[in-house]
Amino acid sequence: xxDLFVLKDVLFPxxxxxxxxxxxxxxxxxxAEAHSAVPELRCPDCATASHRVHSRYGRRLAEYPVGGxxxxxxxxxxxxxxxxxDCGRRTFVExxxxxxxxxxxxGPGVKTxxxxxxxxxxxxxxxxxxxxLAVPTGRARLLGQLHAPDVxxxxxRVLGVDDFAFRRSRTYGTILLDVETSTPIDLLADRTSETxxx
Length: 198
Known about the structure:
The protein is α+β, with helices and mostly antiparallel strands. The chain is built from five helices and ten strands. It has helices spanning about 1-10, 110-120, 125-130, 140-145, 195, and strands at about 20-25, 30-35, 40, 50, 55-65, 70-80, 90-95, 160-165, 170-180, 185-190. The longest helix has 14 residues, at about 110-120. The protein is globular, with a radius of gyration of 22 Å.
């Protein structure tokens, strides 16, 4: 049992409250079976503490590869009751800090890797690269990791404007940059002066 505690800290160093139950290898894939050991959670809407469990179910998450092998986490999560009478939410599902987010099928390490690959290689080439890195994914999910840049809280002092091609000789757009920090601010759908003025 002590070995699993050590392996949990090595394989999932950022996960808080997770207990590793079993580690096996099936067909070249490392399968980590785990559960959460947090005794009570707070409702995400009203912040009322709850320890009453509604039900349990399993989630499968892709995680960062180990030794050239894919890692899949089979995590048992609990659904809790919210007992606050004035809260609109009756039940809520626990999230393991550092490992899960709502509706995600991959851990934060894999998402960071996918984002880096998508930024560097793009769709289909990135998909092939991910396959060789033992974190296979589809082209749509890979490109879905790319998000619009965060909008700064203050207006830039020096605004840079340039055009670029979505498709060479066919479709062009405009990019707005904060020149002082070299960060993109927005992408415009075309390169007309009317769009830029708006």
